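ARCHIVE CARD
CATEGORY: sequence design from structure
SOURCE FIELD: tokenized fold
FIELD CONTENT:
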């Protein structure tokens, strides 16, 4: 054979191999992505007479789960046998050749499927991976061909958690089980059950029946967003709790899915539901009602009275009996010190124990409880505030106010779990438009995907103290399970990869491709996951041109986008977006663009709506004797809308920029700036207005450029464009806050320049 022909054949074989493996990559949608996988030639045929071969003792749980899943989802019935058949079997075994306790090896060949785990847990994760190699849709099959493969896999972190707050809203046991099914699919292994808080005590404690008779029920619940005006309540009794039998049932269900349930009993704050039942445990003696609104309450457990500790120890004794796991979460977050400062018992305790102040009193409280639990063989977890008053020896820190608490804790050689508000809190928005009511920030699924629980500030030895991370589903804005599902998924899928997969394996676009099958697997569990809508335009979009090309995009590969420009809601028969869209704009009548995602499985996103307008040039003005700075009018009162900012101001003056709010001491105030902005060139300016805890309206030359006054659930407009001729233009900026916001920022970008904050030199009056 000539050298050329040999080379050609070799080239041909390599091409075939590459084509095969890239095709294989496409069909293999495993989430979280395994550490290593090698596609092989051939396939295993799964059918009724395939046996599941497992050691009945240690692997009974895992084999029963596998058998049940295949039978329910595909109608294929396999027998579990103890003796290994010659062929056509799935063998589950425990091996001592793997280092990571949760690791496994999965080998699929023509003859058999071998799942060997370092423990029964590892075997279970091998099963989860194997199940993700089967068709994602639930449908009866006579036989299923499974791609031959070798996979070696183990998690990056040992704590892969999902928290659920059942106090703000109560979720029935069936919902918790469903959540665990989806957690198991994602190889998440800790269910952090936030069982008590101001708005309801949700765990039966036999010694203190009033905790659930009184503490589990509130008379009313806040309507709408926290901080919204007018404040309204629904005046409906709301509540519920888990009996100890139900808790045992949940713990058993979790253990069948190799999930540890970690209970959280909040102390010394977030406990007004307990104080409503036992007011003598407070500093003032009450009376109290179970909390109807969100946020932080000033009444907390009295840290001075011995009976507080006696009560909590008795409660914890029952909790310990119900939860076999090694950890108990004792809260410790957001504890106002107002009551302790005015309480004789607390003052006495501070004096007796030689403590410096109320912060140290909180440290004393937590150390005392930690010590009690330590003697019972349990480890304590607390939110990162437990660092502030002196971190109890041995305590594990859960870092939520960013990662700084977690960094401190790991550097102090305390085990640490990272769940920073940004991006691990799922009670905030996950899109910038058209979302159901949520907390005022936005954590996108892609931001969750890119989360790394190990901050750069930690060296290798310190990083060993990071146990992992978790997603937190605080339920203020999750009144029912369906909304909780929407808020949790797909952020849970994204986090699973951040917590399990090797860092080198992370790849957002590949993840999004694999999500297509994951959505179908979630359909099997009837999960109301969020479907992303085309979000690459805002509520208000302005262009100088009459004709603009718009691109529409979402994070769901394989989905279709349909749109309308006639004001109607996009439906299955509406125009299909084919990669580009031209809009003809007018400066008087805006074009209303409505778009929506349609997934192959029939699911649809909400409709995303925005207006598109043509910009007209604004000529500059020539003010006489303009000097630097902006006039301001300051109103020290609680106002709710910019229209209410009228009348005589409490203070007036000139400020060099719009962000000098530091010398304002009141929490509720309004400010009006007016004067001129002098822009350096004739172009389109995109103004960025940020006022996270208030309302603000920016007008230039009498045009509303950025309107951040909308009532939730709509996210603020945030930025807006205007075409300005070089020179002076009149400017007015109105701002009000009632919530210690005091954050106002005005930036802009134009041409290729980005200005974080508009320089004082641009402002005149
Ligand atoms: C928390 O979000 N207060 C822990
Ligand atoms: Zn007290």
């Amino acid at each position: 054979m000539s050298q050329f022909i040999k080379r050609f054949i070799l080239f041909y074989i390599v091409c075939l191999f590459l084509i095969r493996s890239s095709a294989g990559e496409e069909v293999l949608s495993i989430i979280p992505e395994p550490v290593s996988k090698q596609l092989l030639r051939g396939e295993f045929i799964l059918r009724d007479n395939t046996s599941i071969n497992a050691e009945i003792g240690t692997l009974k749980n895992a084999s029963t789960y596998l058998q049940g899943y295949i039978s329910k989802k595909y109608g294929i019935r396999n027998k579990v046998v103890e003796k290994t058949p010659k062929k056509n079997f799935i063998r589950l075994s425990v091996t001592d050749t793997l280092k990571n306790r949760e690791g496994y090896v999965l080998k699929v060949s023509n003859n058999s499927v071998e799942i060997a785990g370092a423990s029964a847990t590892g075997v279970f994760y091998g099963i989860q991976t194997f199940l993700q190699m089967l068709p994602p849709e639930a449908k009866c099959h006579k036989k299923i061909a499974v791609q031959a493969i070798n996979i070696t896999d183990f998690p990056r972190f040992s704590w892969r958690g999902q928290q659920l707050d059942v106090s703000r809203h109560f979720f029935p046991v069936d919902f918790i089980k469903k959540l665990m099914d989806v957690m198991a699919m994602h190889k998440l292994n800790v269910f952090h059950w936030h069982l008590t808080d101001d708005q309801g005590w949700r765990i039966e404690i036999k010694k203190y029946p009033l905790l659930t008779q009184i503490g589990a029920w509130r008379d009313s619940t806040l309507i709408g967003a926290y901080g919204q005006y007018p404040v309204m309540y629904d005046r409906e009794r709301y509540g519920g709790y888990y009996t100890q039998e139900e808790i045992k049932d949940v713990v058993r269900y979790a253990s069948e899915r190799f999930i540890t349930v970690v209970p959280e009993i909040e102390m010394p704050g977030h406990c007004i539901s307990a104080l409503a039942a036992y007011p003598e445990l407070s500093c003032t003696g009450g009376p109290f009602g179970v909390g109807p609104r969100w946020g932080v309450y000033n009444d907390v457990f009295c840290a001075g009275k011995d009976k507080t500790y006696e009560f909590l120890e008795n409660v914890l004794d029952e909790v310990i009996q119900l939860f076999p796991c090694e950890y108990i979460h004792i809260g410790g977050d957001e504890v106002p010190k107002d009551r302790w400062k005015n309480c004789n018992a607390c003052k006495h305790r501070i004096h007796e124990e030689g403590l410096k102040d109320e912060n140290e009193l909180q440290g004393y409280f937590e150390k005392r409880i930690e010590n009690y639990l330590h003697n019972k063989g349990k480890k304590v977890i607390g939110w990162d505030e437990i660092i502030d008053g002196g971190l109890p020896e041995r305590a594990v820190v859960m870092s939520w106010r960013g990662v700084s608490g977690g960094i401190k804790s790991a550097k102090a050689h305390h085990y640490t779990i990272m769940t920073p508000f940004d991006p691990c809190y799922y009670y905030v928005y996950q899109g910038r438009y058209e979302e159901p009511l949520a907390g005022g920030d936005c954590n996108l699924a892609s931001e969750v995907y890119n989360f790394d629980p190990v901050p750069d500030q930690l060296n290798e030895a310190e990083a060993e103290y990071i146990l992992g991370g978790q997603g937190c589903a605080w339920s203020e804005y999750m009144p029912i399970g369906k909304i909780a599902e929407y808020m949790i998924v797909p952020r849970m899928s994204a986090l699973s990869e951040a917590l399990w997969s090797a860092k080198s394996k992370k790849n957002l676009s590949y993840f999004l491709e694999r999500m297509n099958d994951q959505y179908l697997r979630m359909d099997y569990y009837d999960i109301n996951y969020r479907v992303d809508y085309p979000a690459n335009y805002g509520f208000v979009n302005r262009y100088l041109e009459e004709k603009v090309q718009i691109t529409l995009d979402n994070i769901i590969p394989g989905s279709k986008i349909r749109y309308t420009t006639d004001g109607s809601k996009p439906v299955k028969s509406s125009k299909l977006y084919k990669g580009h869209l031209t809009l003809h704009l007018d400066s008087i009548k805006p074009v209303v663009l409505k778009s929506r995602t349609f997934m192959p499985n029939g699911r649809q996103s909400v409709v995303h709506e925005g207006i598109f307008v043509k910009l007209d040039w604004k000529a500059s003005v020539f003010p006489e004797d303009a000097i630097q700075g902006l006039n301001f009018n300051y109103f020290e009162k609680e106002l709710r809308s910019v229209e209410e900012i009228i009348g005589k101001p409490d203070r007036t003056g000139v400020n060099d920029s719009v962000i000098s709010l530091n010398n304002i001491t009141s929490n509720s105030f309004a400010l009006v700036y007016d004067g001129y902005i002098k822009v350096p060139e004739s172009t389109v300016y995109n103004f960025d207005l940020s006022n996270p805890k208030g309302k603000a309206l920016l007008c230039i030359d009498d045009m509303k450029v950025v309107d951040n006054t909308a009532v939730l659930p709509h996210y603020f407009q945030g930025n807006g464009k205007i075409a300005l001729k070089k020179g002076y233009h009149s400017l007015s900026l109105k701002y009000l806050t009632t919530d210690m916001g005091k954050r106002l920022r005005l930036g802009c970008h134009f041409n290729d320049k980005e200005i974080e904050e508009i320089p004082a030199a641009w402002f005149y009056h």
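CARD ANNOTATION: The pocket of acetamide (ligand 1) is lined by residues 333-334, 383, 400 (CB under 6 Å). The two ends are 88 Å apart (CA to CA).
SHELF: design records, drawer C
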